[in-house]
């Protein structure tokens, strides 16, 4: 289980060491997000329904947002966290794992190696970020002191085990592109952090608006351009929501967003089991589909290493404190700017 290395070089070294003793088919790298029912359901949702897959591409999708926000702080893990940061702790593994399931091509079969082959292609297709302009693609932040449900909580720099002058991020927002036929031109925005507004993990897929707004109000203003959004809620309140416009009842045409909701609790009457239960069972059964293959981990590190290098170069030029955010906020200001530059805003899941 993670951390599988601290960067590409150390992950390679670890892989090599493991490879001297076990072969790949005997190696099960746990990423507990892959054990979550909602993450596995990305595949069933995409590949067992005729309705959505035809829309799953740059002809219909405007942009994708992936959020893993946590309300908790670092929970006494300062010694670990300060050496890690959110990019290593959440993005390199968990988020890139479910992103590759969301973005991959349909595999020929549901065999482990066929699934891994498609996932790794997504990670290899990530566009390399320009080092000199890293702040336009990868934003960092650190939580300051504040309150959590009325109780005072320390800022990151005052947490036990954290260096007073630490530049470790507790929040990260990324803009990235998957440069392939399916996703060309579709931005993927990713954000993750500690001490944020609430605990929620989700994938929000925003579809392109209709090509022509047919409806107008009395003043001739165009109505009904608000995009459809499909939200795959990984946790909590596990489920899937589709937002679309509907006519408000009455004599005039007024389109307003409404939602169709699927909830695990109501549809299946049970809560999803613990991720590890499933993963440990699969490992004993010898099924590696829900584990990270070595080449996926390497491809993901290659991408993250470049971000870390960009940040290190940025720090060498300017050691201004990292942008901070208040506990309970959705992140630091530059994260909003990252999307505003593209004329978009972050979702409020
Ligand atoms: C772990 C990280 O891998 O995942 C933690 O090290 C994080 O920092 C946790 O809190 C989140 O997992 P979950 O299942 O609670 O979303």
Explain the overall architecture:
With 349 residues, this protein is an alpha+beta fold. Helix content is 32%, strand content 21%. It contains 9 helices and 13 strands. The chain has helices spanning 8-21, 37-47, 78-84, 86-103, 112-124, 264-268, 275-285, 294-317, 333-340; strands at residues 61-69, 138-143, 146-148, 151-153, 171-177, 187-193, 200-207, 215-216, 222-223, 229-235, 239-247, 255-263, 324-325. The strands form 3 sheets. Strands 12-11-10-7-1-6-5-2-13 form a 9-stranded mixed beta sheet, sandwiched between helices. Strands 3-4 form a two-stranded antiparallel sheet. A hairpin with a 7-residue loop joins strand 11 and strand 12 (255-263). The mean pLDDT is 96. Residues 32, 70, 89, 201 line the site of 6-O-phosphono-beta-D-glucopyranose.
Task: Describe, in short, the structure shown.
The chain has nine helices and 13 strands. It has helices at 8-21, 37-47, 78-84, 86-103, 112-124, 264-268, 275-285, 294-317, 333-340; strands at 61-69, 138-143, 146-148, 151-153, 171-177, 187-193, 200-207, 215-216, 222-223, 229-235, 239-247, 255-263, 324-325.
